[in-house]
Every structure is written in structure tokens, then in C-alpha cells.
Design a protein that fits this description.
Elements lengths: L1 H18 L5 E4 L2 E9 L5 H6 L8 E10 L9 E2 L2 E8 L5 E4 L2 E5 L2 E9 L5 E10 L6 E8 L4
Antiparallel strand pairs: 1-2, 2-3, 3-4, 3-8, 5-6, 5-9, 7-8, 9-10
Length: 149
């Protein structure tokens, strides 16, 4: 199972780095919310199977993580648990609610949601992240076009 988790982390990191926009994080005081969407076909089959993810040219994967910033800048930022809600709007203004599930590997905490899309379609993501124990909600809005190849 440790190998599968390592593969998941490596695959997600590579896939999200490869398709990342110039700015795919937003800082809110002592927290930073990282976000990105990729085609699920970028995920390795064994990783998708181990985590119940659908791989398809028409299914996307949204990854959200909330980090508490190290105030001393002496170590890594810490992944924190959060309530994540969101919706997706396509280019003809159809809206879909996103359903997130939590994945944790050591100190890393990810929230993943899968969604249907058409290749090249402009997608607008509206996300709200609330770190556990905080009264504040952090709004994230970004757009992305997904291509399988």
C-alpha cells in the first residue's frame, strides 16, 4: 500500500506540475490553497485503481490542498484538513456540484473531485475552502481548458 501511495503522490505531483498554470495557488493570511485540474487519463492506471479514480478522456480530476504556512520559513508548510465545496460551470453555463474526497499520505492532505468535460471546453471552477477550526472561508475561482493529449 505504501508503494501505491508513493505512486499516487508522484503521479499527482508530475501531472499537476506538467499542466499547471503560472499561478495555481492563492495565499490567505497564514494559509495557501493550491489547486489544479487535469484529465484523469494522465493518472497511472494502478494509481487510479488503488484510489477508485476513473481514467477517461472525458473525465477530469480536480486536486485541492490547503497548507498552513510556516511563519518562520524554516521548514515546509503543513497540510491541513479543510471543508472543501465547489462547483464547475462549462462554457454554456451548465453548473455541476463537485463532490470531494479526502486523501492523506503522511502530512500531505489532498481533496480530489472528478467531473465530466468535453475536450477544449472552457471550465470555470468556484471553490470554497475552510480549514478545520477556522471561521473563515477562502474563495477560489479559476478557469481551465483540458486536453487529453
Amino acid at each position: 500500500m505504501a508503494l501505491i501511495r508513493t505512486l499516487l503522490i508522484a503521479t499527482l505531483a508530475l501531472a499537476f506540475c506538467a499542466s499547471a498554470q503560472a499561478d495555481n495557488s492563492t495565499r490567505f493570511g497564514k494559509y495557501t490553497v493550491h489547486y489544479n485540474a487535469i484529465p484523469s487519463s494522465f493518472i497511472k492506471p494502478e494509481v487510479a485503481e488503488a484510489h477508485g479514480l476513473t481514467r477517461s478522456r472525458s473525465v477530469g480530476l480536480l486536486n485541492i490542498s490547503v497548507l498552513e504556512n510556516d511563519p518562520e520559513h524554516t521548514g515546509p508548510d503543513k497540510g491541513v484538513s479543510a471543508n472543501i465545496e465547489g462547483q464547475l460551470t462549462n462554457n454554456i453555463q451548465q453548473q455541476r456540484r463537485l463532490s470531494f474526497r479526502r486523501v492523506q499520505d503522511g502530512d500531505a492532505v489532498y481533496y480530489l473531485a472528478q467531473f465530466q468535460y468535453s475536450e477544449g471546453e472552457l471550465l470555470t471552477f468556484n471553490i470554497e475552502a475552510s480549514p478545520h477550526g477556522q471561521d473563515r472561508t477562502f474563495p477560489i475561482r479559476f478557469t481551465k481548458e483540458l486536453y487529453s493529449d
